[in-house]
Amino acid sequence: MIPTRSLASQGGFFRRSAEELGRLSKIAWNTEALHTPTKPYTLLDFEDQRTVSECKTFADRAVGGFSTASLDYEPAEPTSNTPAHVRFHGKISTKLPDNWRVERTGYAAFRNKDRGLWLFGRLYWDVDPYAYLALRIKSDGRRYTVNIQTDSLVETDIHQHRLYTRHHRVQDSEAISNQALYTKSSEDAEAAEQLYPAGTPSALSDVPPESTVMSSTTTVTTSGSTGWETVLLPFNTFVRTNHGFVVEPQTSIIRQRVKSIGIGLTDRIEGAYDLRIHKIWATNGMGEADIEEERRICGEDALSVDEGVRSAWTESKEETGSEKHKEPESGKKGLKGLRSEWEG
Questions:
Q1: CA-angle at 237, arms to 306 and 202, nearest 5°
Q2: How crowded is residue 89: how many other Cβ atoms within 10 Å of its Cβ?
Q3: For 152-196, how does the pLDDT look when each residue is reduced to its tens digit (9 = 90+)?
Q4: Where do the structural domains in the chain lie, given as residue ranges?
Q5: pTM of the predicted model as reported, rounded to 2 decimal places
Q6: 199's torsion region: left (phi>0), alpha (psi -120 to 50) or beta?
Q7: pLDDT of 1-53, one tens digit each?
């Protein structure tokens, strides 16, 4: 008699194999592997409640701390164009436990669980043909960090990037002034020096670098704002860290073998937090196929169609030869904006 648990695990194995084979078949059929893809590659779709169950949370409670982390599925609200999504929420506490070995608390995070096996071994995400990690989120303005783990030689290495949002940009200076004890204390200055001995990397600073693609709207109180926004983070700007410390020498993400993607909160500011995530995907920019959903959910804060994706990078070399070595303009992200990097 075959145990029920064994059947369940086999069912997951066959489902994963079928899904991955189906995805690869579509790529082959559409010859997407022969050119830079213009269609998005969904990694975590939280409209599917099953995706939420395939993630796990972390908090300093594991070492005796008092921070909490929850991940809850929230159904769609058609009347407000709110999609089904996941709610990452809880409370951050910097209170230390009665354990002399624990010197620092105040963190919470989540990520997807191990993706398991399929017909050809362990299952990874291959995002090599894509320039950006895209996240559609609704933020409370706190300083979240996006974490990517790959099948690297050092298993505890993580590539990180600050999750910048319009809300974060608008209220950052006010938050800093309200948390002066946190940002200006000698304790945290020493911690920052230890974490970033060569200075804070641009991808982890409080000011979004130019490479980050965000809505151009400068206010969070516009009449057409839904609170939702889509942020594009370039894969090549993520910073390699280990247990929170920047690692030298820096190495690029192994894009062909991505194990997990998650979001953490390590700002050590006491109080509640609440981040909503609709979807996380790999992309080369906002395309025509995505724009209807983008506008429906994000309203006036929707990103515009990327010209490089619209044209599928079909301009002739003669037309763009003079622009080859120019720096990408802020309005030309995605395929067209990254031409100099990929051809140089």
A1: 110
A2: 17
A3: 888 899 999 999 998 764 444 444 434 433 333 445 555 566 667
A4: 35-305, 307-344
A5: 0.78
A6: left
A7: 444 444 344 457 666 556 655 555 555 555 555 467 888 999 999 999 999 99
Q: What is d(CA 185, CA 257) in angstroms, rounded to the nearest whole number?
A: 40
Fold for 35-305, please state it. Answer: Jelly Rolls (2.60.120)
